[in-house]
Amino acid sequence: MIDSPNGSPLSHLRSILNRLLQLIPVLIGISVISFLLLRLAPGDPVRLLVGDRASPETIAAVRQQYGLDLPLPLQFLRYVSNVLQGDLGLSLRFQRPVAELIGQFMGPTLFLAAYVVVLTVPPTLLLAVAAAKRPGGFIDQLIRFLGIMGLAIPVFWLGIMMARFFGAELGWFPVSGYGQTFTAHLHHLFLPAVSISIWLIPVLTQSLRQALIEKSAADFITAARAQGASEREIFWRHMLPNAILPTFNLLGVMVALIIGSTVIVETVYAVPGLGRLLIAALMGRDYYVVQGLTLVFALVTVAITLIVDIISTFIDPRVEL
To answer: Staple partner for 286: which of 126, 132, 281, 292, CB 3.0–4.6 Å?
Structure first.
Protein backbone atom coordinates (compact mmCIF):
# COMPACT_ATOMS: atom_id res chain seq x y z
CA MET A 1 0.00 0.00 0.00
CA ILE A 2 1.00 3.64 -0.32
CA ASP A 3 3.07 4.88 2.56
CA SER A 4 2.38 7.93 4.67
CA PRO A 5 3.73 11.33 3.63
CA ASN A 6 7.39 12.03 4.24
CA GLY A 7 7.55 15.62 3.01
CA SER A 8 6.09 18.62 4.81
CA PRO A 9 3.98 21.30 3.10
CA LEU A 10 6.87 23.71 3.63
CA SER A 11 9.30 21.48 1.74
CA HIS A 12 6.77 21.10 -1.09
CA LEU A 13 6.34 24.86 -1.25
CA ARG A 14 10.11 25.29 -1.36
CA SER A 15 10.32 22.77 -4.18
CA ILE A 16 7.62 24.57 -6.14
CA LEU A 17 9.44 27.89 -5.74
CA ASN A 18 12.66 26.25 -6.93
CA ARG A 19 10.89 24.91 -9.99
CA LEU A 20 9.52 28.37 -10.76
CA LEU A 21 12.99 29.88 -10.40
CA GLN A 22 14.36 27.26 -12.78
CA LEU A 23 11.85 28.52 -15.32
CA ILE A 24 13.68 31.85 -15.65
CA PRO A 25 16.82 30.57 -17.47
CA VAL A 26 14.62 28.28 -19.58
CA LEU A 27 12.51 31.20 -20.79
CA ILE A 28 15.62 33.32 -21.40
CA GLY A 29 17.18 30.56 -23.50
CA ILE A 30 13.97 30.01 -25.47
CA SER A 31 13.64 33.75 -26.08
CA VAL A 32 17.20 34.04 -27.38
CA ILE A 33 16.89 31.03 -29.67
CA SER A 34 13.52 32.01 -31.13
CA PHE A 35 14.66 35.63 -31.57
CA LEU A 36 17.83 34.68 -33.46
CA LEU A 37 16.20 31.97 -35.59
CA LEU A 38 13.48 34.34 -36.74
CA ARG A 39 15.95 37.08 -37.62
CA LEU A 40 18.18 34.65 -39.51
CA ALA A 41 15.30 33.12 -41.47
CA PRO A 42 14.95 34.28 -45.10
CA GLY A 43 12.28 36.81 -45.90
CA ASP A 44 11.56 40.38 -44.89
CA PRO A 45 8.40 40.90 -42.79
CA VAL A 46 8.26 44.60 -43.65
CA ARG A 47 8.20 43.97 -47.40
CA LEU A 48 5.48 41.34 -46.90
CA LEU A 49 3.53 43.91 -44.91
CA VAL A 50 3.82 46.93 -47.22
CA GLY A 51 4.08 45.12 -50.56
CA ASP A 52 6.67 45.11 -53.34
CA ARG A 53 5.67 48.51 -54.71
CA ALA A 54 6.27 50.41 -51.46
CA SER A 55 8.81 53.21 -51.60
CA PRO A 56 12.09 53.06 -49.64
CA GLU A 57 10.81 55.85 -47.42
CA THR A 58 7.70 53.84 -46.50
CA ILE A 59 9.77 50.73 -45.78
CA ALA A 60 12.14 52.73 -43.59
CA ALA A 61 9.24 54.29 -41.70
CA VAL A 62 7.64 50.89 -40.99
CA ARG A 63 10.97 49.48 -39.83
CA GLN A 64 11.36 52.37 -37.44
CA GLN A 65 7.77 52.00 -36.20
CA TYR A 66 8.36 48.39 -35.13
CA GLY A 67 11.94 48.89 -34.00
CA LEU A 68 13.34 46.67 -36.75
CA ASP A 69 15.87 49.31 -37.77
CA LEU A 70 17.80 48.84 -34.51
CA PRO A 71 20.82 46.53 -34.15
CA LEU A 72 19.91 42.98 -33.09
CA PRO A 73 21.19 43.31 -29.49
CA LEU A 74 19.08 46.44 -28.98
CA GLN A 75 16.05 44.77 -30.56
CA PHE A 76 16.40 41.86 -28.16
CA LEU A 77 16.83 44.08 -25.10
CA ARG A 78 13.80 46.10 -26.14
CA TYR A 79 11.78 42.92 -26.62
CA VAL A 80 12.78 41.52 -23.21
CA SER A 81 12.00 44.84 -21.53
CA ASN A 82 8.52 44.88 -23.07
CA VAL A 83 7.87 41.25 -22.10
CA LEU A 84 8.81 41.96 -18.47
CA GLN A 85 6.15 44.68 -18.53
CA GLY A 86 3.58 42.23 -19.89
CA ASP A 87 3.75 43.53 -23.47
CA LEU A 88 4.36 40.82 -26.08
CA GLY A 89 4.38 43.35 -28.89
CA LEU A 90 2.12 44.25 -31.79
CA SER A 91 1.42 41.76 -34.56
CA LEU A 92 2.86 42.87 -37.89
CA ARG A 93 0.24 41.03 -39.87
CA PHE A 94 -2.93 41.44 -37.79
CA GLN A 95 -2.11 44.88 -36.34
CA ARG A 96 -3.33 43.74 -32.92
CA PRO A 97 -1.57 43.11 -29.58
CA VAL A 98 0.03 39.67 -29.54
CA ALA A 99 -1.37 38.88 -26.10
CA GLU A 100 -4.89 39.59 -27.37
CA LEU A 101 -4.37 37.34 -30.40
CA ILE A 102 -3.03 34.47 -28.30
CA GLY A 103 -5.96 34.80 -25.90
CA GLN A 104 -8.39 34.64 -28.82
CA PHE A 105 -6.85 31.52 -30.36
CA MET A 106 -5.97 29.68 -27.15
CA GLY A 107 -9.50 28.51 -26.34
CA PRO A 108 -9.87 25.96 -29.17
CA THR A 109 -6.41 24.52 -28.51
CA LEU A 110 -7.04 24.02 -24.78
CA PHE A 111 -10.49 22.58 -25.50
CA LEU A 112 -8.96 20.17 -28.01
CA ALA A 113 -6.29 19.05 -25.52
CA ALA A 114 -8.90 18.44 -22.80
CA TYR A 115 -11.09 16.58 -25.33
CA VAL A 116 -8.16 14.33 -26.23
CA VAL A 117 -7.59 13.48 -22.55
CA VAL A 118 -11.27 12.62 -22.05
CA LEU A 119 -11.27 10.33 -25.10
CA THR A 120 -7.90 8.76 -24.22
CA VAL A 121 -8.09 7.84 -20.52
CA PRO A 122 -11.00 5.32 -20.51
CA PRO A 123 -9.71 3.19 -23.44
CA THR A 124 -6.21 3.29 -21.96
CA LEU A 125 -7.43 1.87 -18.64
CA LEU A 126 -9.55 -0.82 -20.29
CA LEU A 127 -6.88 -1.93 -22.75
CA ALA A 128 -4.06 -1.88 -20.20
CA VAL A 129 -6.03 -3.93 -17.67
CA ALA A 130 -7.12 -6.42 -20.33
CA ALA A 131 -3.56 -6.82 -21.59
CA ALA A 132 -2.04 -7.11 -18.11
CA LYS A 133 -4.39 -9.88 -16.97
CA ARG A 134 -2.66 -12.46 -19.17
CA PRO A 135 0.70 -11.16 -20.40
CA GLY A 136 1.65 -12.79 -23.67
CA GLY A 137 -1.85 -14.11 -24.27
CA PHE A 138 -4.00 -13.60 -27.33
CA ILE A 139 -5.68 -10.42 -26.05
CA ASP A 140 -2.35 -8.96 -24.98
CA GLN A 141 -0.79 -9.67 -28.36
CA LEU A 142 -3.81 -8.26 -30.19
CA ILE A 143 -3.74 -5.03 -28.16
CA ARG A 144 -0.01 -4.62 -28.74
CA PHE A 145 -0.46 -5.23 -32.49
CA LEU A 146 -3.23 -2.64 -32.70
CA GLY A 147 -1.05 -0.26 -30.71
CA ILE A 148 1.80 -0.64 -33.17
CA MET A 149 -0.64 0.04 -36.01
CA GLY A 150 -1.87 3.18 -34.25
CA LEU A 151 1.67 4.46 -33.76
CA ALA A 152 2.67 3.65 -37.34
CA ILE A 153 -0.12 5.69 -38.94
CA PRO A 154 0.93 9.35 -39.41
CA VAL A 155 -1.43 11.71 -37.63
CA PHE A 156 -1.75 14.05 -40.61
CA TRP A 157 -2.65 11.17 -42.98
CA LEU A 158 -5.16 9.75 -40.50
CA GLY A 159 -6.68 13.21 -40.07
CA ILE A 160 -7.06 13.67 -43.83
CA MET A 161 -8.63 10.23 -44.28
CA MET A 162 -11.06 10.68 -41.38
CA ALA A 163 -12.04 14.15 -42.57
CA ARG A 164 -12.66 12.84 -46.08
CA PHE A 165 -14.63 9.74 -45.07
CA PHE A 166 -16.58 10.77 -41.96
CA GLY A 167 -16.84 14.43 -42.91
CA ALA A 168 -16.96 14.90 -46.67
CA GLU A 169 -18.52 11.59 -47.74
CA LEU A 170 -20.75 10.58 -44.82
CA GLY A 171 -21.34 14.09 -43.50
CA TRP A 172 -21.34 12.97 -39.87
CA PHE A 173 -18.89 15.57 -38.62
CA PRO A 174 -17.72 19.03 -39.76
CA VAL A 175 -14.29 19.14 -41.36
CA SER A 176 -13.47 22.70 -40.29
CA GLY A 177 -14.25 25.30 -37.68
CA TYR A 178 -14.87 25.26 -33.95
CA GLY A 179 -18.56 26.00 -33.44
CA GLN A 180 -20.28 28.52 -31.19
CA THR A 181 -21.65 26.39 -28.32
CA PHE A 182 -20.23 23.67 -26.09
CA THR A 183 -22.11 20.99 -28.01
CA ALA A 184 -20.89 22.44 -31.30
CA HIS A 185 -17.32 22.39 -29.97
CA LEU A 186 -17.66 18.69 -29.17
CA HIS A 187 -19.07 18.03 -32.63
CA HIS A 188 -16.47 20.03 -34.56
CA LEU A 189 -13.45 18.77 -32.63
CA PHE A 190 -14.42 15.10 -32.41
CA LEU A 191 -12.43 14.00 -35.45
CA PRO A 192 -9.31 16.02 -34.51
CA ALA A 193 -9.44 14.63 -30.97
CA VAL A 194 -9.88 11.05 -32.18
CA SER A 195 -6.98 11.47 -34.62
CA ILE A 196 -4.65 12.40 -31.75
CA SER A 197 -6.12 9.81 -29.36
CA ILE A 198 -5.45 6.96 -31.77
CA TRP A 199 -1.77 7.88 -31.62
CA LEU A 200 -1.73 8.58 -27.87
CA ILE A 201 -3.64 5.55 -26.53
CA PRO A 202 -1.00 2.93 -27.53
CA VAL A 203 1.78 4.88 -25.79
CA LEU A 204 -0.13 5.18 -22.52
CA THR A 205 -1.52 1.63 -22.73
CA GLN A 206 1.92 0.06 -22.96
CA SER A 207 3.19 2.18 -20.07
CA LEU A 208 0.28 1.27 -17.78
CA ARG A 209 0.30 -2.38 -18.86
CA GLN A 210 3.96 -2.76 -17.93
CA ALA A 211 3.43 -1.06 -14.58
CA LEU A 212 0.43 -3.28 -13.76
CA ILE A 213 2.38 -6.43 -14.60
CA GLU A 214 5.24 -5.34 -12.34
CA LYS A 215 2.95 -4.43 -9.44
CA SER A 216 0.94 -7.67 -9.73
CA ALA A 217 4.01 -9.58 -8.52
CA ALA A 218 4.88 -7.13 -5.73
CA ASP A 219 5.07 -8.25 -2.10
CA PHE A 220 2.25 -5.98 -0.91
CA ILE A 221 -0.12 -7.55 -3.48
CA THR A 222 0.78 -11.03 -2.24
CA ALA A 223 0.23 -9.89 1.34
CA ALA A 224 -3.18 -8.42 0.46
CA ARG A 225 -4.26 -11.69 -1.13
CA ALA A 226 -3.04 -13.61 1.94
CA GLN A 227 -5.21 -11.38 4.11
CA GLY A 228 -8.27 -12.38 2.09
CA ALA A 229 -8.81 -9.21 0.08
CA SER A 230 -10.87 -9.59 -3.07
CA GLU A 231 -9.27 -9.16 -6.48
CA ARG A 232 -11.43 -6.10 -7.09
CA GLU A 233 -10.27 -4.48 -3.86
CA ILE A 234 -6.65 -5.41 -4.57
CA PHE A 235 -6.81 -3.81 -8.01
CA TRP A 236 -8.54 -0.55 -7.10
CA ARG A 237 -6.95 0.05 -3.68
CA HIS A 238 -3.45 -1.36 -4.09
CA MET A 239 -2.38 -2.21 -7.62
CA LEU A 240 -3.75 0.68 -9.73
CA PRO A 241 -2.75 3.56 -7.38
CA ASN A 242 0.82 2.24 -7.28
CA ALA A 243 0.99 1.56 -11.03
CA ILE A 244 -0.71 4.71 -12.32
CA LEU A 245 2.03 7.25 -11.52
CA PRO A 246 4.42 6.57 -14.44
CA THR A 247 1.53 6.66 -16.90
CA PHE A 248 0.07 9.77 -15.27
CA ASN A 249 3.40 11.57 -15.59
CA LEU A 250 3.68 10.43 -19.20
CA LEU A 251 0.16 11.72 -19.87
CA GLY A 252 1.18 15.15 -18.55
CA VAL A 253 4.17 15.24 -20.87
CA MET A 254 2.04 14.15 -23.83
CA VAL A 255 -0.64 16.77 -23.11
CA ALA A 256 2.04 19.47 -23.07
CA LEU A 257 3.34 18.05 -26.34
CA ILE A 258 -0.15 18.11 -27.84
CA ILE A 259 -0.67 21.78 -26.94
CA GLY A 260 2.70 22.70 -28.40
CA SER A 261 2.33 20.66 -31.57
CA THR A 262 -1.27 21.17 -32.67
CA VAL A 263 -0.10 22.65 -35.97
CA ILE A 264 -0.78 19.51 -38.02
CA VAL A 265 -4.22 18.65 -36.70
CA GLU A 266 -5.46 22.23 -36.57
CA THR A 267 -4.26 22.77 -40.13
CA VAL A 268 -5.94 19.61 -41.45
CA TYR A 269 -9.26 20.42 -39.76
CA ALA A 270 -9.01 24.23 -40.01
CA VAL A 271 -9.39 24.64 -36.25
CA PRO A 272 -8.85 28.30 -35.23
CA GLY A 273 -6.30 27.50 -32.52
CA LEU A 274 -2.73 28.35 -31.64
CA GLY A 275 -1.39 25.96 -34.27
CA ARG A 276 -3.07 27.82 -37.12
CA LEU A 277 -2.01 31.13 -35.63
CA LEU A 278 1.59 29.90 -35.56
CA ILE A 279 1.42 28.84 -39.21
CA ALA A 280 0.00 32.22 -40.24
CA ALA A 281 2.67 34.03 -38.23
CA LEU A 282 5.49 31.97 -39.72
CA MET A 283 4.21 32.46 -43.27
CA GLY A 284 3.97 36.22 -42.70
CA ARG A 285 7.29 36.47 -40.79
CA ASP A 286 5.29 37.91 -37.88
CA TYR A 287 8.19 38.03 -35.43
CA TYR A 288 6.33 39.13 -32.33
CA VAL A 289 3.53 36.57 -32.67
CA VAL A 290 5.98 33.68 -33.11
CA GLN A 291 8.05 34.84 -30.14
CA GLY A 292 4.94 35.25 -28.01
CA LEU A 293 3.64 31.80 -28.95
CA THR A 294 7.03 30.27 -28.17
CA LEU A 295 6.95 31.74 -24.67
CA VAL A 296 3.36 30.64 -24.14
CA PHE A 297 4.12 27.08 -25.22
CA ALA A 298 7.09 26.99 -22.85
CA LEU A 299 5.03 28.33 -19.95
CA VAL A 300 2.19 25.89 -20.60
CA THR A 301 4.61 22.97 -20.77
CA VAL A 302 6.28 23.86 -17.48
CA ALA A 303 2.93 24.57 -15.81
CA ILE A 304 1.47 21.22 -16.86
CA THR A 305 4.51 19.25 -15.72
CA LEU A 306 4.51 21.10 -12.39
CA ILE A 307 0.79 20.44 -11.86
CA VAL A 308 1.33 16.75 -12.69
CA ASP A 309 4.17 16.56 -10.19
CA ILE A 310 2.07 18.17 -7.47
CA ILE A 311 -0.85 15.80 -8.12
CA SER A 312 1.61 12.89 -8.05
CA THR A 313 2.58 13.81 -4.48
CA PHE A 314 -1.08 13.46 -3.48
CA ILE A 315 -1.46 10.13 -5.27
CA ASP A 316 1.74 8.78 -3.72
CA PRO A 317 3.17 10.87 -0.83
CA ARG A 318 6.54 9.12 -1.25
CA VAL A 319 7.08 11.08 -4.47
CA GLU A 320 9.15 14.23 -4.04
CA LEU A 321 8.90 17.27 -6.30
So the answer is: 281
